[in-house]
Amino acid sequence: MSQLTSRRGLLFGTAAVSAGALLAGCTSNEPKEKEQAADPQPAADDKPGKPVTIGFAGPQADHGWLAAINSNAKSRAEKYEDVTLEITEGSNDTAAQIGQIETLINKKVDVLVILPADGKALTQVGLKAMAAGIPVVNLDRIFNTPQAYRCWIGGDNYGMGLNAGHYIGEKLKDKSDARVIELAGLDNLELTKQRTQGFDDALKNYPNIRKVARQAAEFTVESGQAKMAQLLQAQSKFDALWNHDDDQGVGALRAIEQAGRDDFLMVGGAGALSAFQAIKQDEGVLKATVLYPPTMAASAIDLARALGQGKGVGGLAEFEIPASLTLYSAVVDKTNVDQYMSTGFE
């Protein structure tokens, strides 16, 4: 059997049952502490097996969450004696990232893990890898067609908004004419629209709550501070704020402090260490954050290793790894923040 034929077999279901590939934070609505660790421990099937070279390509780590994606992938790969990780420099330029992935294809890596800067724009290179017999684990930002990947794993943007809305709704359910505002991310991203839609859908369950204002920021500290200052100036009274991203939340909290406001509760998003620390101290408006866990990169390495070794996922009856895995957006507040503290990214 040729190398190409054997690789193509992995794409279409010749994998064997295995206890391997524990998926950190993917398989439970109540993740255990061990599954959420920033440096997750390998699964039960961590005994060295067939050597696997994994190519990893992501965007430029110009954001705390993206930097955490890279560090989770690297640290997970280092846990396995049988895994060699070929990681690219990372780029937000579509052409540059395509070139980096094509280099990995030409090197004939066993499996590719790709977090595309733009899923639509990079679909063709995913298709090229699959056609070459290299299974692709598509991380978070999804390609346009399932033919471009063997498995997708990522966060639940709609669920993130939904859980933020329900948390705020439960806190304000007994308050008449409650008012909430929203500090969103980049409005040209589909994920921002999904987060807002989930939030709005959750609030429909609470007829006493109205969303009275919304501003879109840019996932940066500076934009968070500027847009939050505008919201505070326009809204003299509200009861809760949902901020889509903990990085821009650093700026939002600066604006709140400068304005001397403490008459509302704030819920963040993603799971930055600074947010966890503020929640634990419980001395300000930030009371909770909704996870978008970067541990998905560690789980992607597990999936890639399983594909390269012809294994399935422990705890599932199927012979093959699933076609998709959506992470759960857990709410972290002072009741459970200690459990998640080690997962916080800087």
From TrEMBL:
Q: Does the keyword Kinase apply?
A: no
Which ranges form a coiled coil?
none
Q: What is this protein called?
A: Substrate-binding domain-containing protein
In this chain, the stretch annotated as Disordered covers 27-50
Question: Any signal peptide, and if so, which residues?
Answer: 1-24
Source superkingdom: Bacteria
What are the GO cellular component annotations?
cell envelope
Any one GO molecular function term = carbohydrate binding
Segments forming domain Periplasmic binding protein: 54-311
| Pfam families per record | Peripla_BP_4 (PF13407)
Cell location: Cell envelope
Entry-linked PANTHER family: D-ALLOSE-BINDING PERIPLASMIC PROTEIN-RELATED
At the highest ranks, the source species' classification is: Bacteria, Bacillati, Actinomycetota, Actinomycetes, Kitasatosporales
To which protein family does this belong? Belongs to the bacterial solute-binding protein 2 family.
Keywords associated with the record: Signal
